[in-house]
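Sanity check

After download, print the first record. It should look like this:
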Amino acid sequence: MTRKVFFLLATLALTVSAQATTFTSANSFKPSAELSLQPASAPASDDDEGLFWWSAGANLASNYLWRGYDQSYSGKMFDPSIQPSVTLGLGDFYLDLWLNVSPISQYQEFDMTLGYEHDNLSITVYDVWCGVGKDFWQNNFLDGSNHNLTATIDYTFFDRLRLHWGTTFIHSADWLYNEDGSRKRRAFSSYFEVAYTQPFEDLFDITFTAGASPWTGPFWTAGPQIFEDGEYFLNYNDKNPPVTGFNVTNLNVTLSREFEAGDVTIPVELGYTYNPTSKRHYALLKTGFSF
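Expected structure tokens:
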């Protein structure tokens, strides 16, 4: 128990330290991100149901990929990210705090997630703060903020086939516009994903994933961008028009395995992603720890 408390305090210190840096740095535009570090399951036995539980951990990834896009929008294969996480739970409900910082690119992110997980069903509502050079509380949350609010639902069949849907309800960039430039309506950018995992004895798991935007999702399928004077700008032209309609954005295959060291779990992942919309390829190596 003493070891777990030590690890929790160390992870909290890492999160708070990195978060302090995030809240004061100028950043580039970036839409919300799905929860990348899954929370631990609620207590396994019926006797423990309803009791408080917690987990903590951190990932080190060669790139922060989300829905088939690298979050620095640089197109680089290597853009390392450090991703600490702390989860506090009560029965099937939990609160997760997740942070992403990169020592190379400017992109940083802080996610706060309220979730419910029971058997094969998972439901979340989360706020993402992207720190685009603004204070955490700056601007109107509903319109001009760098926060966004997203809801997701996942269901897993036969412990192998996972279906995922996510819809953004609030985001300052999630609008459709009239020809005169005035706002037409919220776009409610959404994403759905199908993933199948096949275990290979005790060696590793292989997961095949396909994800797409079902309709025009301007806040995360924004199209080509350029970087000038510390900010990102959309770069539309005849050869690079805005991304509209249905678009497949994430085709992925991942090999994964978890190692146990006492109370600590060490996951290792090696993956390949192709985004047909941006026409970019990525290799991803991720490892970390959780307890």
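If your output differs, re-run the checksum step. Summary of this record's structure: Residues 15-41 have pLDDT under 50 and may be disordered.
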